[in-house]
Design a protein that fits this description.
Radius of gyration: 37 Å
Number of strands: 7
Largest sheet: 3 strands, antiparallel
Helix content: 55-70%
Shape: elongated
Number of helices: 37
Distance between the termini: 70 Å
Strand order of the largest sheet: 4-3-5
């Protein structure tokens, strides 16, 4: 079973390629896997029915007790046969339905097969948490399938509606699952049902589970999404909305009902909502003129029927409910596929446009009538067997809820017969106008025989199931016997039970349903006004509009476009939250020292004074430099506190940040104007003082808050024992806490992408390669001529001085500095070598990938400052995105590779050897991870330079060429 589940995860990836090669015939290949899964399930039948339940498990998250476990009891066996059997027939049907269509077909086929796999896992998994995962996967995949015709607004809205409703129910169900797992002490579904914990918490969890199940199975008040989902292709409607997806909620109810139907909230919810849904869907089906919508509301009604029966939780109801579940999957998927044939052949599903089709398509009409007979419960179909068993079960049950269920089912059965006749009459009968004359016959082009195979087989199986009732009784008893027996009467599945009350009630509902159809046709029920002026879909749309309006108001109220307001809000919340925690905490334990080093006595006042002066600075660049003084002061504090790594990194970060600010400030006026004056300066000063005081108190209290020995005392030993390195900081970053660094790399990449996306206007591609193309065609050392205006390029063959930096030739004469070019030319390669040394030495000495990357980035900054964007392009002739991607790929690869050797991710290995000349050499594989960090940091710096630097230069040049004065 686990192997089949894995195949369902892999094969869909191949289908888009196969569709491109052979078109719709790729569905033959797609059907192979469901057919194989169906055959394997049939092969397990003797084992399942014999009580030897197949079980496979793989420990997935041992720390949480979550496993990929597959367990096939009778209920799962039935659902697996439905999911794989109907799925295989739908795949074969798609081969004819999509003949000649290729747009988006590869994705559709892959998603449809993946959905079959998700349902396969959902009905077989024995882990309740994994079931929730499969549950949400089916919601996402159904969203993609319903929205297949994505160019149509109706399809997109229907897909979003289904996703929101089922996902909302799934989130509520997740809370219930968590509560239930905590109460039971296990996530095993069979274990929870065997333990059967009770109490108020369990009752609340059951209600939440029912919310998820009812939303998935389109039970009121969540029923409206299913008719809207008819915007999907007909095979999707036949599979998802008749045989598979909507059965997920029914399956969950059927799984818990035998144990928890006696719980206080269970039957009131299940029976009342089930009865109301059955009646509501049946009434609405009589109003529809679209064949698919007739079946959609009929499906809503039948899902209410299934909820009543399988949720009732008694032995006889469970037996009849399981037979009803199978019959519904057969007749409703058959009818949907019939509608697909009609729609494909005639390009319409409107019953007012169809007349006389039955005489031209007798095979289709006959098997449609058989399917409708099974839906209405007419002998000799499986639907009749199931319906009679259900009626008998409710008749013999003494509980008051059984009476409510019986009355609701009988009225619903009348409506089922009525809309069933309406479907057959609308699709195949010859219509007449108001004068009684026959309408013109709709011409019917005969479809391919293969197109009819799936609906004919499914419809025919309803008759086979009726005659096979005794065998099904034996098979389904394994599930039914898990529910309690509440009366002396014991139900059995049989085609004929004799002249009993249930039979007369069944026959009476059929006859009365026929009468209701003719009365509805006579009074033109479909054209009459609704009882209420709105529908559930209108309520849904109204709620969405309300949410949108509230969100607009909230956004307008909070997102004012003022950075001081945003920062002030954050600071107010910080002071309020932390101040409350400080004041309400236990007695403070303060352990303070005035200083640990005389350098601190010098550095701290300088930092304070620089911060105060920065507040009063009138020029932006002056303010930035003064703020950087505080960062440089931290460098001294780190360096004198035994943290050379942090000091090195801090000074590099501070330098790169200063450069980034300088690049931005080029496009902003140097001096702050009057409009930059502070608003409410006293309030700001008070808030600033409060933030500083709060932060100081937090730091003071934190020094004495520790009650246990800090783990940092073990870090030097752990760094060498686990990471084989002496530099505790670097070993912690790339080994002991490598996952944290992995997350930080992701943040860096997102930050680089965000900065570039804000700056680049017309495209996101790197333009540095375009800038350097002219340089690649000229001599590397082009002659220059010293003139009164500075050094200017000479013509070919003229001797003179040569450029130290090739890009410097493109810089305007007033912006060039030969001294700077010379210094950069001399130092660039040395700095790169130093960065590589810091990278590889960082495992034992100060440094590492982050510091080394920043050093290399500083070398690129020097090239840019000296030679402009052209020189930057020559120094780094590659896209920044490639460096970012390569670095992340190396980091992720170093984390994944240990898995192939049975080790945990990011596990490092230590190598050492004696090499001639070099001597004793040591190498730790975590250095590979550090190389990834090194490349990501270089890519980040390069991305900032090319966006805030090169792109801004390009935009400035464009403006100058247009005659705009740029200051």
């Amino acid at each position: 079973m686990l192997v089949i589940l894995a195949a369902f995860g892999i094969l869909p990836l191949l289908l888009p390629w196969l569709v491109r090669r052979i078109g719709a015939r790729a569905f033959y290949a797609a059907a192979v896997l469901p057919i194989g899964a169906f055959g394997y399930t049939v092969w397990l039948t003797p084992q399942v029915l014999g009580g030897d339940i197949p079980f496979e498990t793989y420990e997935w998250i041992p720390s949480l007790g979550i496993a990929l476990s597959m367990r096939m009891d009778v209920l799962s066996w039935v659902l697996t046969l439905i999911v794989t059997g109907v799925g295989a027939l739908v795949m074969l049907y798609c081969r004819w339905y999509f003949e000649g269509k290729h747009s988006g077909l590869g994705q559709f086929s892959a998603v449809l097969l993946a959905f079959a796999g998700a349902m396969y896992g959902l009905v077989l998994t024995d882990d309740l948490v994994v079931l929730v995962m499969f549950w949400e996967v089916t919601s996402v995949l159904s969203y993609l399938l319903i929205g297949y015709y994505h160019v149509r607004g109706a399809s997109r809205r229907a897909a979003l509606q289904a996703l929101l409703v089922t996902t909302l129910g799934g989130l509520v169900m997740l809370i219930g699952v968590v509560l239930l797992v905590v109460e039971a002490g296990t996530s095993s579904l069979s274990g929870i049902l065997a333990e059967a914990p009770t109490g108020p918490v369990v009752n609340a969890a059951l209600v939440m589970l029912l919310v998820g199940a009812l939303s998935k199975s389109a039970i009121f008040p969540f029923h409206f999404w299913l008719p809207g989902a008819m915007a999907a292709p007909t095979p999707v409607s036949a599979y998802l909305h008749a045989a598979a997806m909507v059965k997920a909620g029914i399956y969950l109810i059927a799984r818990f009902a035998p144990v928890y139907a006696i719980a206080e909230p269970w039957r009131p919810i299940v029976v009342s909502l089930g009865v109301f849904t059955m009646l509501l869907g049946g009434i609405q089906a009589l109003r529809e003129n679209d064949l698919k919508r007739i079946l959609a509301f009929g499906t809503v009604s039948q899902l209410g029927f299934l909820t009543i029966v399988l949720g009732f939780g008694t032995r006889d109801a469970a037996l009849g409910g399981l037979a009803l579940l199978v019959s519904h999957a057969l007749f409703k998927s058959a009818l949907f596929l019939v509608v697909g044939v009609i729609d494909r052949q005639l390009s319409t599903r409107d019953i007012t446009e169809l007349s006389g089709v039955g005489r031209q398509a007798p095979t289709l009409a006959v098997f449609s009538i058989i399917a409708v007979c099974s839906m209405a419960g007419i002998i000799p179909t499986l639907g009749f067997v199931a319906k009679e068993t259900v009626l008998a079960a409710f008749l013999e049950d003494p509980s008051p809820w059984a009476l409510v269920a019986l009355i609701g089912v009988l009225i619903g059965s009348v409506l089922t017969m009525a809309y069933g006749i309406r479907f057959v009459w609308g699709a195949f009968w010859t219509k007449r106008d108001a004068s009684g004359a026959a309408l013109p016959r709709t011409e019917w082009p005969d479809p391919p025989v293969g197109f009819l195979a799936a609906p004919v087989i499914l419809s025919g199986l309803t008759v086979v199931g009726g005659f096979a009732a005794p065998a099904l009784d034996t098979a389904f008893a394994g599930y039914a016997d898990t529910a309690p027996q509440v009366s002396e009467y014991t139900a059995h599945l049989a085609l004929w039970h004799g002249w009993e009350t249930a039979l007369f009630l069944s026959v009476g509902s059929v006859l009365l349903g026929a009468l209701v159809f003719f009365l509805a046709l006579r009074v033109r029920w479909s054209a009459r006004r609704r009882v209420l002026p709105f529908t559930a879909a209108d309520v849904y749309n109204g709620v969405l509009r309300g949410i949108a309006r509230v969100s607009v108001w909230v956004t307008g109220f909070t997102q004012r476009g003022s950075l001081p307001v945003y920062v002030g809000t954050i600071f107010v919340v910080f002071v309020a939250a932390q101040g409350t925690a400080l004041l309400s905490g236990s007695q403070w334990q303060v352990e303070l020292e005035l200083w640990q080093s005389p350098v601190q006595v010098f550095a701290a006042p300088v930092m304070i004074v620089a911060g105060l002066i920065a507040v009063r600075a009138q020029k932006r660049y002056t303010g930035v430099v003064l703020v950087s003084v505080t960062g440089l002061g931290m460098v001294l504090l780190f360096a004198t506190s035994g943290a050379p790594d942090l000091a090195l990194t801090q000074i590099l970060v501070e330098t790169v940040t200063l450069v980034a600010f300088a690049l931005v400030l080029r496009r902003i006026p140097a001096r702050m104007g009057d409009h930059n004056d502070s608003v409410a300066p006293i309030a700001r000063a008070v808030l600033a003082a409060a933030v500083g005081l709060t932060m100081a108190l937090v730091a003071i209290v934190a020094t004495g808050a520790r009650v246990a020995e800090p783990i940092s005392l073990r870090f030097p030993d752990l760094a060498y024992e686990l990471g084989h390195g002496r530099n505790v900081v670097n070993v912690a970053l790339v080994d002991l806490r490598g996952w944290d660094t992995m997350g930080e790399l992701s943040v860096l990449i997102l930050a680089a992408t965000g900065v570039a996306s804000l700056v680049f206007v017309t495209h996101r591609s790197d333009t540095l390669s375009d800038l350097t193309r002219p340089l690649q065609t000229m001599p590397a050392r082009r002659p220059l001529l010293e003139t009164s205006e500075g050094l200017q390029p000479q013509g070919a063959g003229v001797t003179g001085r040569r450029a130290w930096l090739v890009g410097g030739q493109r810089v305007r004469a007033e912006d060039r500095s030969i001294l700077l070019e010379v210094v950069v030319r001399i130092l660039f390669h040395t700095i790169i070598i130093v960065s590589l040394y810091v990278l590889f030495a960082g495992h034992n000495l100060p440094g590492g990938g982050f510091a080394g990357g920043l050093i290399a980035g500083m070398a690129l900054v020097m090239r840019y400052v000296a030679g402009g964007p052209y020189e930057l392009g020559a120094a780094a002739p590659t896209d920044a995105g490639r460096l970012l991607g390569a670095g992340m790929l190396i980091a992720v690869g170093s984390a994944v590779v240990p898995l192939f050797f049975g080790a945990a991710p990011l596990t490092s290995t230590f190598f050492e050897a004696e090499i001639p000349v070099l001597g004793h050499v040591e190498f730790v594989t975590s250095a590979i991870f550090d190389v990834g960090v090194y490349l990501v940091v270089i890519g980040l710096v390069l991305d900032v330079l090319r966006s805030l630097g090169a792109e801004v230069d390009r935009q400035t040049k464009v403006l100058r060429d247009r005659g705009v004065i740029v200051r």
